[in-house]
Amino acid sequence: MRDTELYAALLKLHHPWRVREVKLDLAAERVDVWLEHAEGVKWTCPECSKAAPVYDHADEREWRHLDTCDCQTFLHARLPRVNCPDHGIRQIRPAWANPGSQFTFRFEVLLIKTLKERRYRNLAPDRNELG
């Protein structure tokens, strides 16, 4: 299995998004994953959900994702902007950045678990004090 296929499966990406490239930097403990969309995709206005033609693409953005084997993982993408006849030029909302998405939910769960563990460790007595 190629790294792009592996990350597409791990991220549970759906059409029209796919993984274009994966770059692993072990020295920096970092994984970067570039996403792109298929050509000729019909997008909708994020305001009214009406079909709208692609106007252009925004500059590349970066989103933090859950770690991969203790390496910080970042998603990169240039999001399409549509030209809605009613609302003008609007940037689409990617599935991985929407409130309540699987990506957001998993990250929130990890943060809550981490905070609970830190709180427990801070409340637990020091082992040296137990005698």
Tell me about this structure.
The chain has 131 residues and is of the alpha+beta class. It has one domain (3-125). The chain is 24% helix and 37% strand. It contains two helices and nine strands. The longest helix is centred in the C-terminal third of the chain and has 22 residues, at 102-123. The protein starts with a helix and ends in an 8-residue tail after the last helix.
Protein traits:
about 130 residues; globular; 2 helices; alpha+beta
Summarize this structure briefly.
The chain is an alpha+beta fold and 131 residues long.
What's the number of extended β-strand segments? 9
- Helix/strand order: HEEEEEEEEEH
Major sheet: 4 strands, mixed
Shape: globular
Strand order of the largest sheet: 1-2-7-6
Structural class: alpha+beta
Stretches with pLDDT under 50, minimum 5 residues: none
What's the end-to-end separation, in Å? 53 Å
Q: Using only CA atoms, what is the Rg? A: 20 Å
Task: Work out the count of structural domains.
Answer: 1
Please tally the helical runs, counting DSSP H or I stretches of 4 or more residues: 2
**Helical amount among residues, as a percent range?**
10-25%
Report the sheet-strand fraction: 35-45%
**What does the average pLDDT come to?**
86
How would the blueprint of this fold be written?
Blueprint: H1 3-11, E1 17-25, E2 30-37, E3 43-44, E4 51-52, E5 54-57, E6 61-68, E7 71-77, E8 80-84, E9 88-91, H2 102-123
Parallel strand pairs: 2-7
Antiparallel strand pairs: 1-2, 3-4, 5-8, 6-7, 8-9
